[in-house]
């Protein structure tokens, strides 16, 4: 367990994709909220700038594809852990044209089985998600032993299930807002503990909670537009730890590796 956790949060590369114009009108969403395409683009550019220039990651930027309005949410299409990459088969037809060669969500039982078979060194447990799109709609890892969790009843129930399923003892950071619990943790050689999280403008009370993490480099990143189409901070990049160069081709494919419709919890990673 300690050995598996040793490199948690260590990343060298990030894969991102530009925001298509079609996101504003055609992207999947739970609520029919109007998206400002210009602001969405600006937010994403700031997100990429943080990864590339402030944190020093090598960022692989893929062009937008107008026929795939949700394509900016690259995390949905791949699960990467160490040198292994699992390519998913998104449940929505409009998401299935996204395929990243050389890399490895909401997932059903079969998807969880494939995940467990792929990452044999990790414990994979199914956590019922009663509300929200997936597990990371209300929780994510804010450190090697720290779970950021929302305050809602269903978020707290999920946390109890995770605590019961795991032999490892996690600390928790409880946030007033479920959506604010979606954050990105990294452990970078030149930066130490880094946490990308919501801005005070979006969730002022939750932002105050993050400020308690005195040993973290805190980086507020705005996500006010993409959240309208159910996108969160973690959705917009695939993070990789790889010393050698990475070459990625964006391909169109009609078949992916696993069906996705419910949500899974990968030990030390939430999806």
Automatic annotation (TrEMBL):
GO molecular function: amino acid binding; dimethylargininase activity
Signal peptide from the UniProt entry: none
Alphabetized SUPFAM superfamilies for the sequence: Pentein
GO terms (BP aspect): arginine metabolic process; citrulline metabolic process; positive regulation of nitric oxide biosynthetic process
GO cellular component, one term: mitochondrion
Keywords assigned by UniProt, alphabetized: Hydrolase
Name of the protein described by the UniProt record: NG
Organism lineage string: Eukaryota, Metazoa, Chordata, Craniata, Vertebrata
């Amino acid at each position: 367990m300690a050995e598996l956790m040793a490199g948690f949060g260590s990343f060298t590369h990030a894969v991102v994709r530009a925001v298509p114009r079609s996101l504003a009108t055609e992207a999947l969403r739970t609520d029919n909220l109007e998206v400002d395409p210009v602001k969405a683009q600006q937010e994403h550019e700031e997100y990429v700038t943080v990864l590339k220039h402030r944190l020093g990651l090598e960022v692989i930027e893929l062009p937008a594809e107008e026929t795939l309005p949700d394509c900016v949410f690259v995390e949905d299409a791949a699960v990467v852990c160490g040198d292994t990459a699992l390519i998913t088969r998104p449940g929505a037809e409009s998401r299935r044209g996204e395929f990243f060669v050389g890399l490895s969500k909401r997932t059903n039982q079969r998807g969880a089985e494939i995940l467990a078979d792929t990452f044999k060194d990790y414990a994979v447990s199914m956590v019922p998600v009663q509300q929200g799109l997936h597990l990371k709609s209300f929780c994510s890892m804010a450190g090697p032993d720290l779970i950021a969790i929302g305050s809602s009843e269903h978020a707290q129930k999920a946390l109890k299930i995770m605590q019961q399923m795991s032999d490892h003892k996690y600390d928790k950071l409880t946030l007033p807002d479920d959506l604010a619990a979606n954050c990105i943790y990294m452990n970078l050689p030149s930066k130490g503990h880094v946490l990308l999280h919501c801005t005070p403008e979006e969730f002022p009370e939750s932002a105050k909670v993050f400020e308690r993490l005195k040993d973290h480099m805190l980086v507020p990143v705005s996500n006010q537009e993409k959240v309208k189409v159910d996108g969160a901070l973690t959705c917009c990049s695939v993070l990789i730890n790889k010393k050698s160069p990475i070459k990625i081709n964006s391909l169109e494919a009609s078949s992916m590796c696993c069906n996705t419709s419910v949500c899974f919890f990968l030990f030390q990673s939430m999806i």
